[in-house]
Amino acid sequence: MAMKGVDDNGSVMHGTLMTRKFLAPEIILGDDSRELIGQYALSLSGKNIFLVSDPGVVKAGWTGEVADNLASAGLDVVTYDKVTPNPRSKEVMQGADVYIDEGCDLIVAVGGGSPMDCGKAIGAVASNHCHVLELEGVDEVQFPAPPIICIPTTAGSSADVSQFAIITDEEKKRKFAIISKAMLADLALIDPVITTSMSLELIADTGMDALCHAFESYVSNASSVITDMFALEATRLVSEYLPKAYDDPDDIVVREKVMLGSMYAGLAFSNASLGLVHAMAHSLGGYLDSAHGECNAQLLEHVVAYNYPQVPDRYRDLEAAMSGNSSSTDSGPDSLVGMIRGLNEHLEIEPGLSNIGVKEEDIDFLSHNALLDPCLATNPRPATLEDIEELYHGAL
Amino acid sequence: MEPSENADRMAAFRNKIIGLGETSHRKSYYPQLRDQIRELNQAMLALQESENKYRSLVENVNIGIIQTEPWDDGRVIQANPAFCRMLGVNDEDELLDRPAVDMYLYPEARLELLKELEREGRIKDRNVVFKVKDGSTIMCSVSLSAQYDINGNMILVDVVAEDITEKEQRSEALRQANNKLNLLSSITRHDITNQVMILEGYLYLVMERVEDPDILMLLERMKVNVKSIDRHVMFAKDYQEIGIQAPQWVDLMDTLTGAMVSIDRTLIDLHIDVMDYSVFTDPMIKKVFYNLASNVIKHSNATNLTITTEEEGNNLLVVFQDDGIGIADKKRLFKKGSSSSGYGLFLSKEILSITGIGIRETGVPGEGARFEIVFSPGQYKTSV
């Protein structure tokens, strides 16, 4: 029977379903799907392709292979492959200059989160003729970017399916988010074969990033039944298969499962957004240029403990999904926190932010930046500056 | 930032992230994009209107307009109705895709025009003879301009053609009539001058044989009248030459020096101090300069004549200033027959007026005469 009530925005509800949107790019998933790039670039009317990548991916051979495929389809290719981890605003602006100068009309990003975020931001800057810093925030992208195709080489960032692009403001040593439907790629070519070139460390870091996406979108105060479904399935897949992928990186079936989990988590967080883990990790990444996945992995258990009292049922669902059981224990946050620690241990992620260079005296700066991050808006439990400081201390 | 302020900011973020508000648009549904498309449509409509206007102008104008390719024999791309009428064809289709060279009576004329067009980019008023469908020909005055691609290669030639066949025939008739008149005038003048000389001779003979002072006085008067007939004939000769040659740009300094060659420098100290100018005038302006200088010698008692240039507003003045007695009665200065020795200033004024150049005398009596020749903008330019 339909129930009437009022949702947290004050609008009248006619049932249990919150009114929510769900947005996803066209997704082509499967082994060797990367080889379809030429055909799809043509179908999006591309002629002069701007290929964004990074030196690691170039070395692994994926960038060259994609460029060759594009050239075979009769397309011109301009390669921009110097993107660094945690891409800087300067790299975006330089890329946009090259894009405009060379008269490109379509962007292909091959790589992990960095080249994909950089490529998406380059597109937005090229269309809006502005500085990338002006696009910070939600719905600040006025004009749509040119067509963008993403080919992820890691199983974690999910920039290929998300409306987010995270860029580093190198002047102020902080990361900022560009969140807009216009930041959604037109096509994600998700090819598990590509992820086989990842190092063990990268498998661990990006996999934990995916798990954090699943966790944070599930407990987000903007979640929906659709994002819940993806978040829970992502949690289940990543928890079960990430350790296996770490133990046996050559098992392609296991890699597919992690990739699938990452994509589900991406679809969930792109629509439900994230929370305190990401707000704090962005601040860390901007300040110390540390690996995003590792920051997340370090922070997750502390934020779970902090948020738990606010949404215990949601965390119990996550605990069940992690353990593969249909129901969870009723032991409060301890059991779930224990599972996260166990996973981190398995992945050889040494606990403690001090291991990645965080010092006591950095906490003030880090907390101020985290407090302003839009990801905080959807954290289930509101956090004050003091709360965030305390969490950093706890994670040190 | 105050905690409550940040809470409001975060609430606004959350609403936007949920993405149901007016600011949340999919890639292809941006209102700005819609605006841009609307503006583009408006621009296209305006372009269409403007094209219609030009089309109507090209189709209704009474001057032939064609567009051809510059290479080979010049395929015709477009021809307006006026050009079709000129060539006696029913419509454009009879000319389209045909070689332009076939329209020329002398095909080499087209090649020469193209060569010149390649050099100049645009050429004006060249006479060309076109073949008409019925076998006759027409004379056209054509102007050509070239269109180029982004690499600077000529890709199209626009030709504007005016049928001047009748105009040419009329000017030819006029030229011939003028020649006949000149011939008649020159023969008649020659005959009159001969008769006047004979008359003058007889007058001298008669005067030598007559002693009666009354009759001698009458004969003197006759002599004056005979001289006057001679002057009238000389005037007719000069006047006939005015306007025969087309006006042209001449170098001021060269023309002045040329005109002063026959001035006797022992009778006057001549100072020419003019800047580098060219002036647009009847070539007989030389005569004007000579007249002005020669008048100074004859009538002013001056010792110095200074010729200078001055710019007055937008006008250029060429000034003849002497230090003689000046001119007290300026009223009839430029009138016919005002001069005792002929028609100098009247003729000068006539010569100058052909191209609209003015002349005036502004000197102070007693301090010398000052003649100013006034060139308006467009009648003079600085020499390069």
How would you briefly describe this protein structure?
The complex is a heterodimer of chains A (396) and B (384). With 396 residues, chain A is an alpha/beta fold. In chain A, 49% of the residues lie in helices and 12% in strands.
Q: Could you explain the architecture of this structure?
A:
The complex is a heterodimer of chains A (396) and B (384). With 396 residues, chain A is an alpha/beta fold. Chain A has two domains: 169 residues, Rossmann fold, CATH 3.40.50.1970; 198 residues, Up-down Bundle (Dehydroquinate synthase-like, alpha domain). Chain A is 49% helix and 12% strand. In chain A, the strands form three sheets. In chain A, strands 3-11-8-6-4-5 form a six-stranded parallel sheet, with helices on both faces. In chain A, a hairpin with a 4-residue loop joins β9 and β10. The longest helix of chain A has 23 residues. The termini of chain A are far apart. In chain A, 56% of the residues are buried. Chain B is α+β, with helices and mostly antiparallel strands. Chain B contains nine helices and 13 strands. In chain B, the strands form three sheets. In chain B, strands 2-1-5-4-3 form a five-stranded antiparallel sheet, sandwiched between helices. Chain B has a five-stranded mixed sheet with strand order 7-9-10-12-11. A three-stranded antiparallel sheet of chain B has the order 6-8-13. The radius of gyration of chain B is 37 Å and the shape is elongated. Chain B starts with a helix and ends with a strand. Chains A and B meet through β7 of A and α1 of B.
